[in-house]
Design brief:
By secondary structure, the chain is α/β, with parallel strands linked by helices. The protein has a single domain, classed as Aldolase class I (TIM Barrel, Alpha-Beta Barrel). It has an eight-stranded parallel barrel, surrounded by six helices. Strand 7, helix 10 and strand 8 form a beta-alpha-beta unit. Helix 1 packs parallel to helix 11 and helix 5 packs parallel to helix 7. The C terminus is likely disordered.
Amino acid sequence: MKSIIVAEIGSNWEGSLSKAKKIIHECKKAGADAIKFQMWRATDLYTKKHPNWKEIKKSELTFQMTKKIKEYSDKENIEFFCSAFYPEAVTFLSKLGVKKFKVASRTCKFVDPYSLEVLQEKNNSKKEIFISMGMGGNKQKITKIFDNKKITFCYCVSEYPLSFEKINWKDAIKYDGFSDHTMDILAPILFSILKKQKLTKKIYIEKHVKLSNSKGPDASTSITTEKLSEMIKQIRKIEKAMGDGKVGMTQKEVPIAIKLRSHLRWEAHDI
């Protein structure tokens, strides 16, 4: 089974529907399986004194805009879903027909308003849930909230950007999901290899993505759609090369082996 590769847009659509459409189109062209946005109310998570307040407020995803982005994603034949940070957003997205939800690391820390209500609402949706475990999230506490069996926990380090050397791979491979914040494509590729070796059936990989001219708050910690394309190509190549684990001779090796055998001298131990 191939990895689910999700392009995390975050605020890189910069409050512009045309930019949202452009990045969705480019992510589809790159080979992403899904695109993910974030639904939050700026005043719930930030103060107006935040240095990027204007850009943050501009990227607030309204219900009306979400509907338009979902419709365009359907047109592009790429799955759309969100990290939702307040209960009404979860309800709206469920009615809109999303198949998945993402839970951000900060929600699992219960530091935001409505964190518990959001988790409960997502559980009640009975949809597939992907949960990031950055900042030392309490996996046991979160598991108790979800009686929904369709949950996948994701390894995550909430540093922006994250250096490759800070990834604890012995811990990372215990998870079936990987929410990556490095500025390169090596980490997701390596995660895919390690999980394929363990014969993991479902692998979730999430990467922050931007257009080459993006200037939003998330742009400095996102890769371009061109890099995303290269990452996906390498992961798909690895998936094809993993094989079935059986040792044997390929069809093209058979005539070569016969030819080599015909030139060998018979020895006693060959009989």
